[in-house]
Amino acid sequence: MLSVRITKEIIEHSPGPNKSVSRRQRYTGNGLKRIDIRSITSESDYSNESYRRFSDDNGVTWSDWEDVHTGEYIVKGQDEISVGKPSYGIYNPVHNHYVSINMQRIFDGGHKNAYRLYWQEAKRGFHDHSFLYTSSDSINWSEGQLIKYEPGADYVEEKWNDPEYLWNNDAYIGSNLQILENGDILFSIGANIKACCDILHLDVNEVFPSCPDIMKGLIVIRGIWNKETNRYDLFNSKPVVINDLKSSRCVDEPLVFRLDTGRIIAIFRGSNVQSKNWNTRIEKGAPGHKWYCYSDDGGKTFTDPVPWHYETCEVFFSPATISSFYKSSKTQKLYWIGNITGPDAYGNSPRYPLVMAEVEQKQGLLLKDTLTVIDDYHPLTDSPNMQLSNFDLLEDRLTGKLEIYITRLGANIKDFWKSDAYKYTIEFI
User: Fold this and answer.
1) In the chain, domain spans
2) Which of 45, 138, 268, 354 has the most crowded CB, counting CB atoms within 10 A?
3) Which residues pair with 23 in a beta bridge?
């Protein structure tokens, strides 16, 4: 186990029946100014209310809440757009600016119709595009730079439904952004699986015939700052794909990190879920994993993905849930935070326990004896549907303590959505 002290506190109770509250904090610049983002939701993958407030003194005092929901979602004809503009960024000390990667989502006929098409008919009812932004002050941002991996039109608001834009460069945002020592940036996207296969000169009907319209492959991107154009030149890796007999949801929510050795590792959630709507081919009883691949050529090419494992060569089991890397300024070690379960992991469940472990810096494997449980399902108080996932991380710049913001969604046995927001503080001792 890690030598840490973990404290847990409720920072906001659910505001009422059928309402989940989530909170997350970020630093908005290179100092101690924080932004606190508050969301209320009663449905999956959509925010019904959104607010923000600011603190100039590292969270001691705060401004009043500001309603920002109307600026995050706009209606265009019958369609709905999640704008995805930046509210904070990661500081690049080499080039003295902030960088943010954000995702726009356009819902055909509104979000309810779009999600129905996705889950019930395996059709692309929504269109994701990722954009890169820079800022000198983390307040005023550049025009978004569309992240491209194939030909296609740029975004024009008046022509939001241009097919040359909608159906090309579909890109779900990766789960992290790393600033390298020389000022380059490293991040990933989930790119349309058919487009990935075309780039690799593969037949998608041999790799992923089940539901290729809606699933993603992996592309890792390195950005190099161009002073003349005042933007990053982006260089894409060769795509990484995985067969639908191994992961029925292909690549989802990828993480990338360059280790001290120069090796770049990529971790992503797969899935072993079976779905008639998606025509899945995966066998019943197939194990659930986090999948792992790496590059030793600077991110140009990656190995074929295999189940992520401990340095002991033991494979562990994990549901299809998001995870994060965290490098501590106090210990200078790299950690992974996510869900590791037993062999019964199926689809997205169970989403507990939430664990943390050190990542060794040669191959990028987990050190088994450092595995530490942050929180778990408590049968006397929690519903078995409770989720310890979809968390946000922040390191306190004064103390070096790690703050984890999470909603224990579904913990209420009688009301799944009536869920409280928690903060876990992890102190390295």
Assistant:
1) 4-428
2) 268
3) 38
